[in-house]
Amino acid sequence: MMTSFNHSFVHGRLIRLLGNIDKYEIFPELSIEINGVEHKPDISIYSKKKRIQQKDIIKMVELPLVTIEILSPTQPIQDLIDKFEIYFNAGIKSCWLVIPHAKSIVIYSSLDHYKTYSDDKVIDNLFNIELSIIDIFE
């Protein structure tokens, strides 16, 4: 899928801001394998224990702590919710849905439990991540 200006803008901002959190390693568009199927979240967050591997890993089987999907203008939201269902069923604990045109982020801890952030800060309580909405979207 082609990404738009807004998608790329927010993607870059999130990588930079999340990269400032010492306890996590941030991976853009890393292939993860779930039940034999390749998935590629826009951003995956892992505990900071990863290093460059002598033998590169083409598809990660270790699941990230958090996945982040950024809505593109031609993409139905339901496609991302369907991805979240796969991620949660596999054991991923937190999924973010970033909606650039609305300058909002929805953090899901399950498909039935989520919170929308669009004012001051976005907070993922499971992993103690707090970012400024302005820093992400402005």
Describe the structure.
It is a single chain. With 138 residues, the protein is α+β, with helices and mostly antiparallel strands. The protein has one domain: tt1808, chain A. It is built from three helices and ten strands. It has helices spanning 5-19, 77-90, 133-137; strands at 24-28, 32-34, 37-39, 43-47, 66-70, 94-99, 104-110, 113-117, 121-124, 129-132. It has a six-stranded mixed β-sheet with strand order 1-4-5-6-7-8, with helices on both faces. The protein has a two-stranded antiparallel ribbon with strand order 2-3. The longest helix has 15 residues, at 5-19. The radius of gyration is 14 Å and the shape is globular. The two termini are 24 Å apart.
- Would you identify the CATH architecture? Alpha-Beta Complex
Q: Strand content of the residues, in percent?
A: 25-35%
Quick one: overall form?
globular
| Total count of strands | 10
| Neighbour order of strands in the largest sheet | 1-4-5-6-7-8
Number of domains: 1
User: Could you give a short account of the major beta sheet?
Assistant: 6 strands, mixed
List keywords for this structure.
alpha+beta, 138 residues, two-stranded antiparallel sheet, 10 strands, tt1808, chain A, globular, 6-stranded mixed sheet
Q: Strands, helices and their partners?
A:
Layout: H1 5-19, E1 24-28, E2 32-34, E3 37-39, E4 43-47, E5 66-70, H2 77-90, E6 94-99, E7 104-110, E8 113-117, E9 121-124, E10 129-132, H3 133-137
Parallel strand pairs: 5-6
Antiparallel strand pairs: 1-4, 2-3, 4-5, 6-7, 7-8, 9-10
